[in-house]
Design goal:
alpha/beta, 6-stranded mixed beta sheet, two-stranded antiparallel ribbon, single chain
């Protein structure tokens, strides 16, 4: 075990530094192969069994499994406990920070499902599972197939290659759903269609793929209508409640990045910087639909103008007088913060598709503003 960790820890650290994700040793892999219908043997092993090569073949005949089989991981219910509420509070602010809380992948029962019950497919992010259960528990009896998406929500996981047709195929085969239900219909989230090839799942498993509604709250009505979606079930919206939640996520994560250095190195700026970050983030969340432009960088232009007008109004109302260099720094700082807030909120918006990342534009804007903060005082003789 010591040798294993001496080999694993440097690799895990390097993986996290490069990708901000981690790896986990496989547990019970040989049993998993058996449950999936494979006869296997170890062909070779290296690095103290850290790397193992298996030779596996399809078993001649797989024994059918019923709903009491170990392939069913358990039953899920919506329960509002102290732990779940504390976890929800943590995820409200810091859900971007890995490692992400996740549910063990596998097949679960919700309610009292039977052979005719629908099969819903989703990712294994704890928040996703919790909100899905809140929407369907007590209203729907179904089988829930939880796919390993690395603890990432279905939309981001599908866009980032963590939620794929291959993973769904693997989950279907491992769960051996054909022994539990009399139909061959999978219901996948509409928001994972950007990265999951439904036709590949059909070809490789024989199971039909149906794209469910955009929001979990519409699932009971969708199922009651015989898997038919109305137009409102298809449309993605970004109401004020969701915008405020996403602003909170942004403030929680990026607040640490911006405010911790200020608390250590520029303590007098901590209060004004925190007020500016909070004010701009929540103000932008409120007025987001009415700012011109679809892209976050485009929306940052009017947001910057509004923030600078607000800064000028504050100086006039309070009668504050600021040195030219300080005024320049605040102007450039508010501009940078406005661009940052607007560009980052774009990745939080469900109205965007593949345009989540504005990092190149942010890097260019930051470089230009940094250069201006260095050169202008020298040119104007303020330093």
């Amino acid at each position: 075990r010591i040798r294993f960790y001496l080999i694993r820890l440097p690799l895990a650290l390097t993986t996290w530094l490069l990708t901000r994700t981690t790896t986990h040793p496989l547990q019970g892999f040989e049993q998993l192969l058996l449950e999936a219908g494979f006869a296997n043997r170890r062909a070779a092993a290296w690095l103290g069994n850290s790397l193992v090569l298996y030779q596996a073949r399809l078993a001649a005949e797989a024994e059918p499994l019923d709903e009491e089989s170990p392939v069913v991981a358990g039953r899920l219910r919506h329960q509002a406990t102290l732990i779940s509420r504390l976890l929800g509070l943590w995820l409200l602010f810091f859900r971007i920070i890995p490692p992400y809380p996740k549910v063990k992948p596998g097949l679960y029962a919700v309610g009292i499902p039977g052979s005719e019950s629908p099969v819903l497919v989703t990712g294994n992010f704890t928040l996703t599972i919790g909100r899905l259960l809140a929407a369907i528990d007590g209203l729907v009896d179904c089988w829930l197939l939880v796919v390993d998406t690395g603890g990432i929500n279905v939309w981001c996981a599908a866009g980032g290659g963590k939620f794929t047709a291959g993973k769904v195929v693997s989950a279907v085969r491992t769960a051996r759903l054909e022994h539990l239900v009399n139909h061959h219909a999978l219901i996948l989230p509409q928001l994972c269609a950007n990265g999951v090839d439904g036709w590949q799942i059909r070809r490789e498993t024989g199971w039909g793929v149906h794209w469910g509604p955009a929001r979990a709250s519409d699932i009971p009505a969708y199922l009651a209508a015989g898997r038919r979606k109305s137009d409102p079930m298809r449309w993605m919206t970004f109401p004020l409640k969701d915008r405020l939640e996403m602003a909170t996520v942004t403030v929680g994560f990026y607040g640490l990045i911006l405010l911790l250095p200020a608390a250590v190195f520029w303590r007098p700026l901590l209060g004004p910087l925190a007020a500016a970050l909070l004010g701009l983030s929540y103000f932008y969340a409120v007025i987001h639909p009415w700012l011109p432009g679809r892209d976050g960088l485009a929306k940052s232009v009017p947001l910057t103008a509004i923030s600078l007008v607000g800064y000028a109004a504050y100086l006039l109302i309070t009668g504050s007088r600021m040195a030219p260099l300080s005024g320049l720094n605040w102007t450039l700082g508010l501009t940078a913060l406005s661009i940052f807030v607007a560009a980052e909120m774009q990745g939080m918006s469900p109205l965007m598709r593949g345009e989540q990342a504005n990092w190149k534009g942010e890097a260019v804007a930051g470089s230009v503003l940094g250069l201006a903060a260095w050169l202008l005082p020298l040119i104007l003789g303020w330093r």
